[in-house]
Amino acid sequence: MAAPPAAKKGAGGLASLPEEVLLIVFSRLRIKDLFLLAVTSTWWLRLFTDDPAFLRAAQGHGARLLGFFFQQTSFIRCPKMRQDHMMQRASAFAPTFFPTPGSHPLLGPTDRALTYFVSDADGAFNYATPLASRHGIVLMRLVPRSPDMAAFFTPVVFGLCNPVTSERHVTPLLEGVTWPELFLGGYAIVTAADSSLDLDDICSSRRHVFTQLIVTSYDREGLQWLVYSYDAATRRWTTLTACLHRDEHEVPFRLEGANAAVVHRGAAHWLYTDQNLSTCPPTSMYTLRAEVGGAGATPRVSMTKLPLTAGESPFLYANRDGRLSVASLYGMCVEVWTQQQQDGGGGGDHASPWLRTRLIRIPIEVPSAHPYAMVSQREWFEFNGGAMLVLFDGGAVFLLDLEKKKKVEKLMDLPPRLFSNERCKMVVPYEMDLSEFFAFQLGSLFARWNKQHVDLDVGKA
Amino acid sequence: MAAPESGDGNNGAARMVTLISSDNTRFEVEAAAASLSQTLQLTILDGGGGGGDGIPLPNVDSATLSKVLEYCIKHAPAAANGGAPNATAVDRAELERFDNEFVNIDQSVLYSLIMAAHNLEIEGLQSLVAKKVADMIKGKSPMEIRRTLGFPDPTPEEQAEMNAHMLEYGWAYE
């Protein structure tokens, strides 16, 4: 990593500072300022691209988890609040970002309004509820200003933004869906890299470019599920017909685990059970699979029953080898089942066998602090690619890496005020590999510069 | 953060310690001021640095050390006062004015200062200088950063590549 002193020539005296001191300075800069610094000279560019870990240095375990988004002020349909909201012409009551203690200095160290990172002059994000996040993109349900706001059922509009790049996107109305007549279920934030099978694309900055949003919604009884797809390029919604229909005598499907889909090999996957009380096994599990489509394409949707029964809190994720896995809890044990690879691959997802691949005992050190806490109240979240789970317990955040470390680590405590209000419990973990992102963005430039310098050297020789 | 200045109200009994810079210059300073450094604080609490012994600081030269001590002496009364609940707005403004002027110095001195503050663990000084250096970069174009920080100009080829890159990733540079 250390460049020879001669290479620092073009980098000024600042480059003489050791990395840990540079990080102290950088922690006071926005990521955009770092980008601009990086392109001042070869030395600086190399500092950021050679070793993506450099920017990760200030972060601890769970480097991908940068923090949490939540809404402190929920919008209530009372006349006063409606009137206020109609009058607001500036940003107010936007979601709040709460950084993890080890979060990147660029995002921390204290909680800030989302609008600190993403401009929102017209107040579109006022009262927005964060729903899901993926690869640095945050999805929110917005509270649209419309003359018929007095109506009980409100139209559905989504906002997406990336606090790191400051990009933002507001969808048009989702026609035909009013909330809470139809409840919103699962979400899939699809990026440019998802629909591509090109490895270069998958491992590139394209994974941070929002291209498509897939939303599932269900009626009050949970008997009918609908899937909608939104294409960012055409700014159009595609409404799919009812993809699932349960007869009235059947048990309604229930979305399990995170409402953010596992987007994996060209499709979004959600996990469902057909048992309302997951504590009464055996419960059948199903995956809802929606193909990720190109522009204007209608995603194919299918429901597959898994050859497994669910334990407590079943949870779907893609493991490090890129295979679908289901983790569920049995007492103090986490059982992981993984779908096996099929010869030929492609399309025949449903027929692949599932094997139990892991049995992890949750070590006693965590529960001993809170005897029944781990089992009583928790939410599990997936980190894309990392297969890391976050366990919630009245504000305490635990990390359990199902793939590597068989150890539960306590990461932080969320402030109790987040949990004091029943309505504010919607907390969305925010993950992104910033250093990787940064290096990708600058990498291509560095490659070109490097080539040029080699060419020059060859020319001289 | 600030507290009433005790510059003229020195009770005379304040304990003094001696610090020795890398070029062997001796600095005598109140223990309270030197204790702003987390690193020195432990040594001083252990009774070090008194009398003829002195604490050697092999990583800090005399020019930098005198600057560091200037900061410590100014900030020691406020630090000693803890949360400084009775600090007046005037005191705070005075300290702020001092800080602003203090970092209005040559870049090379800034870099030496932040290194010293980092090594000696003087939290306030470290963030003061870090803020100053960050401000020299913040909100500037690459060309302006180069000018401010004294980097040499790029070759025309480098400049062309950079322009192409910034066009490609326009969002990052808007």
From TrEMBL, chain A:
It comes from the Eukaryota. CDD domains: F-box_SF. Residues 11-57 form the F-box domain. InterPro entries: F-box-like_dom_sf, F-box_dom. This is F-box domain-containing protein. It comes from Eleusine coracana subsp. coracana. The gene is ga08409.
From TrEMBL, chain B:
SMART domains: Skp1 (SM00512). Keywords: Ubl conjugation pathway. Residues 16-75 form the SKP1 component POZ domain. Residues 124-163 form the SKP1 component dimerisation domain. Gene3D superfamilies: Potassium Channel Kv1.1, Chain A. Involved in ubiquitination and subsequent proteasomal degradation of target proteins. Together with CUL1, RBX1 and a F-box protein, it forms a SCF E3 ubiquitin ligase complex. The functional specificity of this complex depends on the type of F-box protein. In the SCF complex, it serves as an adapter that links the F-box protein to CUL1. PANTHER family: SKP1 (PTHR11165). Belongs to the SKP1 family. This is SKP1-like protein. It comes from Eleusine coracana subsp. coracana. The gene is ga14711.
